[in-house]
Give the backbone structure.
Amino acid sequence: VRARELGIAPGVLPTGEKNDITDVAGVRVGHVTLIEGNDIRTGATAILPHDGNLYQSPVPAAVFVGNGYGKLAGISQIAELGEIETPIVLTNTLSVDRAMSAIIDWTLDQPGNERVRSVNAVVGETNDSGLNNIRKRVLTPDMIREAITSASTGPVQEGAVGAGTGTIAFGWKGGIGSSSRHLPENLGGHTIGVLVQSNFGGILQVDGAPVGERLGQYYLKDEVASDKADGSIMIVIATDAPLSSRNLERLSKRAIAGLARTGASMTNGSGDYVVAFSTYRQTDPAAAQTENDNMSPLFQATIEATEEAIYNSLFMAETVDGFDVSTQSPRRVEALPLDKVKEITGAN
Amino acid sequence: VRARELGIAPGVLPTGEKNDITDVAGVRVGHVTLIEGNDIRTGATAILPHDGNLYQSPVPAAVFVGNGYGKLAGISQIAELGEIETPIVLTNTLSVDRAMSAIIDWTLDQPGNERVRSVNAVVGETNDSGLNNIRKRVLTPDMIREAITSASTGPVQEGAVGAGTGTIAFGWKGGIGSSSRHLPENLGGHTIGVLVQSNFGGILQVDGAPVGERLGQYYLKDEVASDKADGSIMIVIATDAPLSSRNLERLSKRAIAGLARTGASMTNGSGDYVVAFSTYRQTDPAAAQTENDNMSPLFQATIEATEEAIYNSLFMAETVDGFDVSTQSPRRVEALPLDKVKEITGAN
Amino acid sequence: VRARELGIAPGVLPTGEKNDITDVAGVRVGHVTLIEGNDIRTGATAILPHDGNLYQSPVPAAVFVGNGYGKLAGISQIAELGEIETPIVLTNTLSVDRAMSAIIDWTLDQPGNERVRSVNAVVGETNDSGLNNIRKRVLTPDMIREAITSASTGPVQEGAVGAGTGTIAFGWKGGIGSSSRHLPENLGGHTIGVLVQSNFGGILQVDGAPVGERLGQYYLKDEVASDKADGSIMIVIATDAPLSSRNLERLSKRAIAGLARTGASMTNGSGDYVVAFSTYRQTDPAAAQTENDNMSPLFQATIEATEEAIYNSLFMAETVDGFDVSTQSPRRVEALPLDKVKEITGAN
Amino acid sequence: VRARELGIAPGVLPTGEKNDITDVAGVRVGHVTLIEGNDIRTGATAILPHDGNLYQSPVPAAVFVGNGYGKLAGISQIAELGEIETPIVLTNTLSVDRAMSAIIDWTLDQPGNERVRSVNAVVGETNDSGLNNIRKRVLTPDMIREAITSASTGPVQEGAVGAGTGTIAFGWKGGIGSSSRHLPENLGGHTIGVLVQSNFGGILQVDGAPVGERLGQYYLKDEVASDKADGSIMIVIATDAPLSSRNLERLSKRAIAGLARTGASMTNGSGDYVVAFSTYRQTDPAAAQTENDNMSPLFQATIEATEEAIYNSLFMAETVDGFDVSTQSPRRVEALPLDKVKEITGAN
C-alpha cells in the first residue's frame, strides 16, 4: 500500500489526482525491470517531460547536487543552457554508459532529428550492488530503450521495479516512489510531481516517528564505521509552473529538505541528486515566469512531495532475494514491516 | 530550559560536555544585547575560532548557502582561499556594515597586524524587524566590538540574547541556540559544535512531533500568501577534526538537513547560511587531514547538533515585546509554550 | 588620450557613441576622489543601473568570480534572486563597510522606501595601499554618498579618479576605464558597456603587442617570488539586451577573457570580480528574453569592451605620487609611457 | 613543426624537457585514430595520471567549466571527492557513452579491482562533425580501450590524431596539442603540463599577432549570425605540485586565460572544460600541500602552457578531407598556413 493509505500524509498541502509525478500534464514514466537467475536484480526508469520532440523542444531545467558521489550524466550542459533535451533515465551505477547509448540512439532516430549532431543525455543512477550482480553489466541499450518507448502518463508503478528493482533504503527494500502536490489557485494553481529512486541510509523517520530507532536498524547503531549508511538517491521533480532555470535550481534544493526529513544521513558515499524541469512551454507557453516572491509555496510543495515519494518507495517495495557483490553471496532484503510502522506512527 | 532537559534528544550520538559550540576547544562566543525603549530589540554575537591572532593564523573554513536571500559578508574569499581570518559576527540585516567596521578596526588594532592592508570580515545576519526598529540603525561598531572582546569559552548564553534578541522562529520567539556532538574514539573522537541564530518559518516539528500543526501556527495554514514564513537562519559550525576546506563545505551542507528536520520551509525570502571552520591547526597541527571515507560520522553529528541547536534557540527564548516595522506598531512574540511541547512530543 | 585615439582598437565590433558604459541608456556613473596630504589617494565610484527607484525596480544581474581574494559585498543574494536592488559602488578594500553604509542609508532615504527593512548593498573593491594610506580609513559614508548622488549619464571620467585614484596596473598607474560595443541590428542591435577599476599585475600586452616585456616591467621578471603581481580588478558590465540572470552570468564570465588578453597573471592575491546587469525592464520591458543561441555576439562584445576598458584605465591615468603602506614610505607610480606603447604596438 | 620551432614562445617561463604533458613524471598519453572511407575522421585520446592502479590510488583533481555546452562525464564526483580514479579519455561528442564503457570495463578488469562496484569514468569530448560522420557512431569501446592500453610516457603525438583527428579550430585544422612549463627551484621547481583537443572558433591571435584578421578568417567577419564560431575545447592539466583539489580548481580556471589569449570567442555553443590533476601522491607523497601564497607562479605557468598547447594543436595539424554532417557533403579543412603565420608574427 502507499503511505497515504496508512494515514501517512506529510505536510499541509493537497496532493494531485494520482499523487504521482504524472499529475503534471504530459509527463510520462516507463520502466524496464531485469530479473535473471539468482543474481540479477536491476532495471531502468525513464521520465519524459512531454510527448513531443524533446530535442527540438527542450524544457527549462536545473540540477542540484546534494552529495556528488555519483555519476549523473548531462549535468554541466543543463547548468549552462538551463534546459533538458532528452528523456531522463535512471538506472544502476555501472549502466550509465548503456543508458546514454539508449538515449543518444533514440534521439538520433526521432523524426525531425536527421541532422542532430550533439545529444546531452541525462542519466542518473544509484548502486544496486547489494542485491544485483552489477559487475556483470547485463543491461543493454536496447532494454533501456524499452523504458523510454513504453513510458506512459501514469499512474506510476512503484517499489521494486525499473531502476528500483535492486535498491535498498534504511536497510529495507527501497525502490521507485512518487508523489505530488497541487497548489490552490490563490497560490498559483500549479502542480509539483516528484519521483525518487531510493537507495540510501540513515535513521528512518516516518512523518516524524522514529521508526528506525524503534526497529533497531539505523546508521551508527553500534557506533562502528562498518555500519555503512552509504547509498544514494535520485530525485526528479516535474512542474507546470512557468519557472526559469534559476528558480528550478532553487526548487531542486528544497527536495533535499524532504530527504532530510526521512532521516537520511547524507553520508560521504551517497550520491544525492535532484533534477527539476518545467513543462510550461508545452502547457502554457505564453505564461509569464513565476516571480521570486511567489516561489515559496512551490518550495513547500517540493519538500512535502519528496518526503512522501520516499515513503512510497519503501511502502510499495516487497522483499527481494538477490546477490550482494561485496560479500559475493546471496542476500535477502526485507520489505519495511508496515504493521509495525503503523503502530509506531500511530497512524489510523 | 534546554531541549535535552525536556527529554528532546535528537539523533543517536552523544553530546559534548557543555552541549554547545564551546565544546570545541578554544572556540569563544560573545554577545552584545541592545534593548532601548519600546522599539529597539537587537544585538550581535561573535564567534572566535581561537584566541590567537586570527589574521596571522587563519582557520580552514567553508560556507554553504542554503537560500541566499541574505547579506553574508566575506563569502567569496572564504571560498577561494578556504580560510577565515577574522571573528565571525552575527547581527541584524541593516547592521552588517557596522559589524564589518568593528571587525576591520579590531583586526587592524591587534598586535602584529601593523602592516595589514586587507581584512575579509565575516558577518552574517537575520532580519529582526518583527520586533526591532531596524531602520534606526542604532547598533554602532563600538557596541559590536564588545561582542568580540567579551567572548569567552562558554557555556553559551542562549535565547533572546545578542544577535538573537529580536528574532522570531516558527511564529514564536527564536534566538541564539547551540549544541554539540562528540564522536566516540573509533569514529575519530572529534567534536562538532553548532551555534544558530534562528529567525525563520515553516511548520515546527520537535524531534519529529508535529508541534506546529497541533498548536495551529504554521506556514500556509490558511493557504494565503500573506502568511509569510520568511526569515533566515545563520548556522556556525566549529570542529577540531582536521578537515580540508572542501570537506568543511560538505559538512556545512549537512546543517541544512538538521534545519529541514525542524520543519523549516526554506522560503524565497529566507537567508539560510552555514559557516564551518576547523581549529585543528591550533589543537593538532600535525594531524593528517580526514579522508573522505571518514566523513560520514561527522556529517551525522552536524545534522543532529544543528537540529538540537535550533530547539535550544526556541526553548531558551522568553517572550519579548517590541516593535514591528512592517506594521509600525508594537508586537509581542510569545515564547514557545514548553508545557504543550512536552505534551505533544510525549517527552518525559 | 584614450586607447582608440592611439589606434588601439581591440576586436572587430563597433563601439557605442561615447565608447563607455553610459552608452547603455539610463546608466549613470559618479565619482568621489579623495586626495589629502602626501598619503591619501583614494575614492569611490558609483554605477547606477537606472534613475528610478532601484529597490522597487531591481535589475536582472549576475556575478562571476574570477579569483575570489576580495570582499565583494552582496554576492549571494544576487546569485539567489538574480537581481541587483541598489547602486554598485567601487572603492578601496578597507572601505567596503563605509560604502555599504552609504548605500543602505541612501536606499532607506529614497521616496517610496519608507518600509524597506532589508538592503543588499553591492560593493566592490581593489586594494590601493600601494599609493594610499588605506589603514587610516578616512573615506566616510557621506563622501561615498556623493559618488551616488552626483552620478550622471556620461561621458565617464577615466584614469586616476574615484575608486581608481590610487590603483596600480602592470606596475604603471591604473584606474577607472570604460568602453562599449554596439551590435549591428542583425545581431540584435544591443549595447554592451564595461567599466573597470584596474589594480592588477601580469605581463602587459596591448592589443597583442608585448608592451610589458619590451619595457622590462612584468610579473616574474626576475623569477623571484618577491616580484608580486598581486592586485585585483573590478569589472562592471551593463547591457540593454533582455538577458536572464543565467545569461548575465555567462556574459560576466567572458569579461575574464578580455582581462586575460591584456596579460593579467590572475595571481593568488587577486580579486577579479565581474558584475553584470541588464536595463531592459526599463527600456523595453515587454522584450522576450534573449535565447541561448543568440548570446555569442554579446559574448564577443563583452570580451572586446573589457579589453579596451582596461587599456583606457591605463592610457587615461597620469603619474601619481602617494604613500606605500607596505614600505611605509612615499612612492611614485608612473603613467604608462604612451609614446613607447605607440612605438611597440606600431599603431597607425 | 611545433610553435616554438617557428619562434612562437608565449610567456616568460621555461618549458619542460619535451615541452608536453608527459614532462610531468608518470603521466602517459595514448591515441586511437579512426579513418574510414570518405566520412570517418575521428578517434580518442587517453591520459593516465600514473601507471599504478588508478582506482585504488586516485589523484587529487578538479574541473572548471568555462562554457558548459558539452558532455564531460564524471564532473560531480570529482567536485565532491576532489579526486579522479580512472584514465581521462577525450573523444567525439556522440562517443562519450562508448568511452565510458571502455573505462568501466578496463577498470573492472584491473588486478585488485575484483570487488569494485562503482567507477566514475571521466570523458571529455568535442564535436568533430565538421569532418566526421559522427552520427554513424563507429567508434567502439574496444577501439577506445586501445588508447588507454597503448598510452606511453611521451613525447605526445600532436595534430590530427586521436581525439583531434576531425576537429577544427579558428576555421583551420585543429587537433591535439601539448606544452609544459618547468618552474625554477626558487618558485617551487614543479612542472605543469597541458594537453588540449582544439575545436573552437574566434579570431586567431598567435602570441598576440592578429593572424585571423590578417588572413580574413574569423568569427563575425561578415557580421552575420551564420558565421558560427561554435565548437569546444578540452584542456587537461597535469602537475607534480602537491595541490589540494581547491587549488587544482583554481589552477584549472587559469587555463581559460591561456585560451582567451589565442582569440577564442567562447561562444554559446562551445564546451570549454578544464580537468586538472596532481601526481604528487605518487612522486612525493609526504610533500606538504602548496600554500595559497605560492600558487601564482603555477597559475602563470598554466596560462602559458595552455596558450602554447593550442598553437601546437594548430601548427602540427595537416589538411584533412572529410565529411560535413551539417551540409551532408565532403569538406576539406586546410592546415594553418605556417609561412603566412611566420610572416605575420614576424617570427624568425
Chain A has one domain: 11-317. Residues 11-317 of chain A form a domain with the L-amino peptidase D-ALA esterase/amidase fold (CATH 3.60.70.12). Helices of chain A lie at 75-81, 96-109, 141-149, 211-215, 245-261, 280-283, 296-315, 338-345.
